Amino acid sequence: MVTFVLSGERIGPGLEYAAWLARSSAQAGAQAGGRRGLLGVQVVSDGDAILDLLGARATRRVARLLGGWGTTLTLGTSVAAIEADAVRMVDGRRLGSDLTAVVGPLRGPDISFSDSLTDAAGFVVVDGFLRSPRDASVFAAGDALSVPGARWRRTWQLSVRQAATVAGNVVASLGHAGPQLREFDAAAARRLARVSLPDVGGQALLVVNRKLLVAGRWPRRLRLRMDRAHFARHLPGEETRWQQLPE
Q1: How distant, in Å, are the alpha carbons of 55, 127, 185, 200 from that of 182?
Q2: 45, 63, 81, 120: which has the highest count of C-beta atoms within 10 A?
Q3: Which domains, ranges and CATH numbers included, belong to the chain?
Q4: pLDDT digits (tens, 9 = 90+) for 41-98
Q5: H or E element in which residue 42 lies
Q6: What pTM value is reported for the model?
Q7: Helix axes 49-68, 12-31, angle to 10 degrees
């Protein structure tokens, strides 16, 4: 049994890995003449991790999709412990597991920063320019940073946008000719935080403000177009890989 424990604010990758593994296992089992997948797969939401991201309706849709591939989705309770051969839940259940992947929790970077530069969780505290207010030589982007008062859900789209801002601000801070430091677009960050577009085993769900708007082939095509554009932009010279993303 392979178990995916989804915990914290970035559960999308874990959910997608679990769904594609479940679907592939179910298809391989069917091709081999069996009624069950070649691998047992289960997904555990630690507390309200999935509900907080997708809302109730989309969560039910995810549960139905996973169930169609023989995969269970455990909701409504938190994880008490990860054991060698099981995941133990707060409500007393003990879910057997041969391999457990915990996906989603984030903490600050494992770098020897002064405590004055980080918050209690170890994230680098930055201002609107993504620069440390305590040390002007320190900039941060992506999962490494914390902006006091900002309610941004960490995503790869947000990280890419922040990286571009940081790159320009680092150049400006070194005194080279060019524009002055510019603030990160907080409005864009808030817009990105509202939208989720997970690919659950080939069926995408478009969720805005935790409300499922549409699911199926159209959002899947949208997601595929976005992924291909991203890879084309950031992985030049690897056209074969990104052009062959599964439909």
Answers
A1: 35, 11, 9, 37
A2: 45
A3: 2-105+197-243 (3.50.50.60), 115-192 (no CATH)
A4: 999 999 999 999 999 999 999 999 999 999 999 998 999 999 999 999 999 999 999 9
A5: strand 41-45
A6: 0.81
A7: 10
